[in-house]
Amino acid sequence: MEKHARIFVAGHRGLVGSALVRSLREKGYDQLLLRTHAELDLTDQAATRAFFALEKPAYVFLAAARVGGILANDTYPADFIRDNLAIQSNIVDAAWRSGVERLLFLGSSCIYPKLAPQPLREEYLLTGPLEPTNRPYAVAKIAGIEMCWSYNRQYGTRYLAAMPTNLYGPGDNYDLDNSHVLPALIRKMHEAKQRGDGEVVIWGTGTPRREFLYSDDLGDACVFLMSLPDEKYAALIAPDKAPLINIGCGEDVTIRELAETAAGVVGFGGQLRFDTGKPDGTPRKLLDVSAMNALGWRPGTPLRAGIEKAYLDFRTHFATADAGK
Ligand SMILES: NC(=O)c1ccc[n+]([C@@H]2O[C@H](COP(=O)([O-])OP(=O)(O)OC[C@H]3O[C@@H](n4cnc5c(N)ncnc54)[C@H](OP(=O)(O)O)[C@@H]3O)[C@@H](O)[C@H]2O)c1
């Protein structure tokens, strides 16, 4: 990617999109095309096509999506499948029509079968039934990968799909009804500390293992992929296999270890009580990241250092009443 190339970051105000913008700016890319949801509704095919025809981006990072936790996925399954199919179809097609050179589609590890062996390798895609709670979302993401692959085969485009593990970082969602495990732990512990509570209750046994990646490391990985020399990039999108690559740190921790680390960062000294009556979910979810490692990429932020940065951001933007305490 040339430093003055026109680069569209779709979803630039989200957790992933904002990390992409930070990474691109830090590396000197100065022609970023950014549109808020209100300025450009990417489910609107005509508006999306008109944007691409006018602005002619050379590179596209597709990080716009309808995203949410189990509750939102369960309550609004139609919205999740409709909006995600529409956003990605409109962008992938408009990118081809306007001659985009490379496109990176952001997927998620939920595309893999619920009972696939661990760690999850890219070739496990479509080898078994999905986790039912977010199947409409996962099916939309799988369709996005399939679209990238199909456009590459039929039209010679150069689209790649990245599957990140669980992310956290600046601008995360701290709404307890709808947040992922780590931001929920940060908020619960912060509020318990403020109230002087003696314990925080955590769902499940604390034994499931999960992998976490700091969002700026993902941003860095995505820019790394889009900047690969032609030969290496071409190998990732070879027509004989789905053009997808996992992005993670390759290590997992138990929910108990995660909670203990978060408590240390937040300064919550009370008890962690595990509510074993609540479901644990799948025992382990870890991505196989050997393809990224073979290309020479590894994340730079250890878990504790990342949680420290996330907590600082939480206090600055979401807990303003007590910022600085
Ligand atoms: N967060 C994670 O742990 C995680 C893990 C793996 C993969 N991913 C993937 O990364 C991608 C981005 O996730 P995220 O966590 O960054 O989500 P996010 O924080 O919710 O950001 C999504 C962005 O997309 C925008 N958007 C949604 N619908 C739009 C529309 N119709 N038109 C224009 N913009 C629209 C949103 O704007 P508004 O808020 O204004 O609607 C928001 O800025 C998703 O594909 C997700 O699957 C995320």
Write up this protein.
- This protein has a six-stranded parallel sheet, with helices on both faces. A three-stranded mixed sheet has the order 11-8-13. A two-stranded parallel sheet has the order 6-9.
- It has eleven helices and 13 strands.
- The radius of gyration is 20 Å and the shape is globular.
- Helix 5 links the parallel strand 4 (102-106) and strand 5 (159-164).
- By secondary structure, it is an alpha/beta fold.
- Bound molecules: NADP nicotinamide-adenine-dinucleotide phosphate.
- Residues 11, 13-17, 37, 41-43, 63-67, 83, 87, 106, 108, 164, 166-167, 180 line the site of NADP nicotinamide-adenine-dinucleotide phosphate (NAP).
Write a brief structural summary.
The protein is of the alpha/beta class.
Lateral strand order in the biggest sheet: 2-1-3-4-5-10
Low-confidence segments, ≥5 residues, pLDDT <50?
321-325
Distance between the termini: 43 Å
What is the H-and-E element order?
Answer: EHEHEHHEHEEHEEEHHEEHEEHH
Ligand species? NADP nicotinamide-adenine-dinucleotide phosphate
Class per helix and strand makeup: alpha/beta
Strands, total number: 13
| Mean pLDDT rating | 94
Helix content: 40-55%
Oligomer: single chain
Which terms summarize this structure?
binds NADP nicotinamide-adenine-dinucleotide phosphate, 325 residues, single chain, disordered C terminus, globular, 6-stranded parallel sheet, alpha/beta
